[in-house]
Design goal:
Subcellular location (chain B): Cell membrane
Distance between the termini of chain A: 27 Å
Number of strands of chain A: 10
Radius of gyration of chain B: 20 Å
Structural class of chain B: mainly alpha
Number of strands of chain B: 2
Radius of gyration of chain A: 19 Å
GO cellular component, one term (chain B): plasma membrane
Strand content of chain A: 15-25%
CATH superfamily of chain A: P-loop containing nucleotide triphosphate hydrolases
Oligomer: heterodimer
GO molecular function (chain B): branched-chain amino acid transmembrane transporter activity
Distance between the termini of chain B: 8 Å
Protein name (chain B): Branched-chain amino acid ABC transporter permease
CATH architecture of chain A: 3-Layer(aba) Sandwich
CATH class of chain A: Alpha Beta
Largest sheet of chain A: 6 strands, mixed
Largest sheet of chain B: 2 strands, antiparallel
Order of helices and strands of chain B: HHHHHHEHHHHEHHHH
Strand order of the largest sheet of chain A: 6-7-8-3-9-10
Helix content of chain B: over 70%
Number of helices of chain A: 9
Organism (chain B): Notoacmeibacter marinus
Shape of chain B: globular
Helix content of chain A: 25-40%
Number of domains of chain A: 1
């Protein structure tokens, strides 16, 4: 193994079935602190199923997922932010009628006092708490080069900026694991290069582990510390990028080469 | 759709830092003073109309939270208006509760009913919720008319509300006492609505409306947000109903036809979705004044005007009367200052 110590996230023999179709078949993998793990595989390999299972949008038929050693099976999607798991969406799911700042703020709200009385009556303690969150988010926005458009709407922003806003929103929750669902989709070559820097910057500055689910093999191989390859709902390779890239089953899955 | 500006962001950046909040507060205080001044400026029927508008505006503020901020459509809030009105009437008729307190009891009863109805109803989305709530609106007059509850509701005859004016030393006549009570509740609901909409509950409502899956991923409890919006809208509608009953001093089943629910819906949309105060106020003025005023000018033609104005307002400005008004004021301001105001609008 590449890493010593306890895993941040452990997936143990996870199986997901839709009707009779087995989308994930006894998958096991671990993610360690501050590690960038690339997850690759052809279409239908089960990457998105695994992703949605980790976000609790899907439920597994057997197996378990542990975060810091604790099972997340009983939890719902809205509980995951509090467990330190943040995510972005493949097709960008920002709140279209909010400002950039407010979108990022929604990432932090789960840890704040959201009661009716808190909103209505306020108070010194609450104002300080909200002021601190506001400052933290402004700091986050400036780290991600978004401070200038904090008060702007989402509608005017281009695709690459929207991706950064989604990153910021996920990071506002102070996650220990950031899950990225095909972040390079729809980006041009230059933007993919920026994304590569952004992922490393985020890992280094925010001390998060990153699970990168991606079609863009070049990006995954360049940025990942370790790569897991999947095909037909099963793990076919797990290791250093160059090792996985040369793995016969991976070559077969991607290129259809018969490496017998 | 409008970009909601909020307390968390207001006055945070730019040269006008910390200026917009006090300015807004000054505006609210001025508006409240105008409403108070109307007590002596208006009399008789005009004061009654003003009370009516404000009580409908309270209901519209609540419904705007549900429909505007949380994006759920209800065509049945007239039923909660009726529950509030009858609660007030029964409180006064049976238990001699002072009329100033009846909205509080009506609000509690209404919230109970809203919670019971909201729990199952909120599993429905969009047109299904609209239709289910519309069923509620259609059934309401029949239930009120029924002999089953006639002992309490007065059946077809309805109930008169015997209302005592304020103590003599205050120097207020009956219309003025009622009007000032309505203004007090209006102020309270304006405050509640603004605080909630600008706070984290407002974020939860908008997030749930804009993208429920992302909202859940950000840790929002979507069901709780919807329930809170629904219960708040029901609270406002039953308090508005109670005040309207007090202003009319009479309730009967015919005062709460299903069209009342459509009128409340109209007030919210024509007034302007997501305009927390101005929209409901203008919308309420529209549904109260247009039928009354046009009937004087063109007998029998008021519904043609009512319908025509609705189509006109929505065609010009999907943000309703409030959108038209802010459009005009920012146009004037731009002319004066020579600047362009940034307007966040969704394409």
């Amino acid at each position: 193994m590449l890493h010593k110590g306890d895993a941040l996230l452990e997936v143990c023999d996870l199986t997901v079935q839709f009707g009779g179709v087995v989308a994930l078949n006894e998958i096991s993998l671990e993610i360690y602190n501050q590690e960038i793990l690339g997850l690759i595989g052809p279409n239908g390999a089960g990457k998105t199923t695994l992703f949605n299972c980790l976000s609790r949008l899907y439920r597994q038929s057997s197996g378990d997922i542990l975060v810091h050693g604790q099972s997340i099976t009983p939890f719902s999607p809205e509980d995951m932010a509090a467990r330190g798991i943040g995510r972005t969406f493949q097709n960008i799911a920002l709140f279209e009628t909010m400002t950039v700042f407010d979108n990022v703020l929604t990432g932090a709200q789960f840890a704040m006092n959201c009661g009716l009385a808190a909103d209505i009556f306020g108070g010194v303690k609450l104002r300080r708490e909200r002021g601190e969150t506001r400052d933290r988010i402004m700091h986050l926005l400036s780290l991600l080069d978004l401070a200038d458009i904090a008060d702007h709407g989402i509608a005017d922003q281009n695709f690459a900026v929207r991706k950064r806003i989604e990153f910021a929103r996920a990071l506002a929750a102070k996650p220990s694991l950031l899950m990225l669902d095909e972040p390079a989709g729809g980006l041009n070559r230059e933007e993919v290069a920026h994304l590569e820097d952004l992922i490393r910057q985020v890992r280094d500055q925010f001390k998060v582990a990153v699970l990168l689910v991606e079609h863009h093999l070049n990006l995954v191989m360049k940025v990942s510390d370790r790569v897991v390859a999947m095909d037909f709902g099963q793990k076919i390779a797990d290791g250093l990028p160059q090792a996985v890239r040369a793995h016969p089953q991976v070559l077969q899955a991607y290129l259809g080469e018969d490496v017998a | 759709m409008i970009m909601e500006s909020t307390d968390m962001t207001e006055g945070r950046t730019g040269p006008h830092r910390n200026l917009s909040v006090p300015l807004a507060r000054l505006g609210y205080a001025a508006a409240l003073l105008v409403l108070l001044a109307a007590t002596s400026g208006l009399e008789g029927y005009d004061l009654f109309l003003a009370s009516s508008i404000l009580s409908y505006a309270i209901s519209a503020m609540g419904l705007n939270v549900l429909m505007g901020y949380n994006g759920q459509i209800s065509l049945g809030h007239g039923a909660f208006f009726a529950i509030g009105a009858y609660t007030a009437a029964i409180c006064i008729d049976r238990f001699a509760v002072p009329f100033t307190l009846t909205p509080v009891i009506a609000g509690i009863v209404g919230m109970g009913a809203g919670w019971l109805i909201g729990k199952p109803a909120l599993r429905l989305e969009g047109v299904y919720l609209a239709l289910a709530t519309f069923g509620l609106a259609i059934a309401t007059p029949t239930v009120l008319r029924s002999d089953l509850f006639a002992e309490w509701t007065g059946g077809v005859q309805g109930l008169f509300l015997g209302i005592e004016p304020a103590p003599e030393w205050m120097g207020l006549d009956l219309d003025q006492s009622i009007y000032l009570t309505v203004v007090a509740y209006f102020g309270l609901f304006a405050f509640l609505t603004l605080r909630l909409v600008q706070g984290l509950n407002g974020k939860a409502w908008i997030a749930t409306r804009d993208n429920p899956i992302a909202a859940r991923a950000m840790g929002f409890d979507v069901t709780r947000a919807k329930t809170r919006a629904f219960v708040f809208s029901v609270l406002a509608c039953s308090v508005g109903g109670a005040l309207q009953a007090v202003a009319v001093q009479f309730v009967a089943p015919d005062s709460f036809p299903f069209f009342l629910s459509i009128a409340l819906f109209t007030a919210v949309v024509v007034g302007g979705l997501c305009s927390p105060l101005l929209g409901p106020l203008l919308g309420a003025a529209f549904i109260v004044l247009v039928p009354n005023v046009t009937e004087e000018i063109w007998q029998g033609g008021s519904w043609a005007v009512y319908g025509g104005v609705i189509i006109g307002v929505i065609a010009i400005q999907s943000r309703g009367l409030a959108g038209i008004m802010t459009g005009i004021t920012s146009w004037v301001r731009d002319r004066i200052t020579g600047q362009t105001t940034t307007r966040y609008e969704r394409k």
